[in-house]
Amino acid sequence: MFTHRSSLKNGLGRIGQLHQRTTSFKSQGIPLIPYGGSHSPDLDPFSVCENESELDDNPGGTFVDPNTFQVIDMNAQDQASATLPPPVLQRTSSQSSTHKDRRDGEGDSTTISRLKKHLFAEVDGEQSTAPLSAYCFMTGFIDSVTFSAIFVWCAFQTGNTVQLALALARLFNGQHDHSFHIADQQALCSVLTFIFGAFIGRLGDKLGCKTRLWLALGTFIQAIFTMAAAISIWQSHQGSVADSRANPAWTNTLSFVCVGFMSASMGLQGIMGKRVNTQFTTTVVLTTTWCELMADPKLFDIRRMVISRDHKIMAIGSLFLGGFAGRALLDKIGSAGTLGIGTGIRLIISAWWLFVPEKKAKK
């Protein structure tokens, strides 16, 4: 019991001593927390402990605690706070750029889908009059070049087929003429390459024979064939106009290459024109066109437009104009230059197909 009272008395004495020390520091103007990170030299905790008896009401008790005062460095706290990482700010610009890129990607995909839809759309045959008339023009244009040089039609294969039949018949006429004439060789070359070009036209069935893509691509291939023919005849260094059937202007190997490329271009054009299925038919063989025109029941109905009649007349007129233009150019600039112009015309037709209106769905 006595021990507990003594402990309580010592504790109260220490609290009183602490109060007296803080009061004495205030009266002397000494701050408890020094400024500027350094404490006053007058403040010495150990000296206070040595003079503790002067401030103690209880002379028998001692109070020595060097950890009573803690020196706080405010500059160190400022430096510590300065070393903290900066606050993380949410960047809205990156999000907006992400959304913008996403919108751009969607716009690109939409543009590609629209372009694909445009290219794979089927053209309206009734509004394909202009490029088909240009096809007929090229038939007369190309044939004027070959017929003027070697008297062979690279588009009208009826005559070439009959010519080969006549060449075969000569073997049985009793004169024993087994020679393969140059004109017959050129006719055979034209027939075979025409069939090859028509076979290429069957590839259009994979893309759609009436789609803008195939019509433009197929016409572009025709232009490539025409350009190859122009280069071949230019490198052959031969003439452009034959004096007679017995003396053709083209006789060497490169001239055969020229005939082959021109015939292949006409074969491709023929099957493409036929696939469009209009009054222009193949745009190559006009014998049938003449017959259908003469058989048209509205041939003399001149007071109104008749598509079945008028388109056939346009096909025949375009072919005639092409033959006239081809021969006129041939006399001025030769075979190579004329075929070069034909290449340019076919490139224009190729681009023309991309702007032909789409066929409307039937309601």
TrEMBL record:
Coiled coil location: none
Spans annotated as Disordered: 81-109
Keyword Transmembrane included in the entry's annotation: yes
Sequence intervals crossing the membrane: 135-159, 179-201, 213-234, 254-272, 313-330, 336-356
Keywords, ordered alphabetically: Membrane, Transmembrane, Transmembrane helix
Manganese found in the keyword field: no
A family per Pfam: DUF1275
Top-level taxon of origin: Eukaryota
InterPro entries in alphabetical order: DUF1275, MFS_trans_sf
Signal peptide residue numbers: none
Name this polypeptide is given: DUF1275 domain protein
Species the sequence originates in: Rhizopogon vinicolor AM-OR11-026
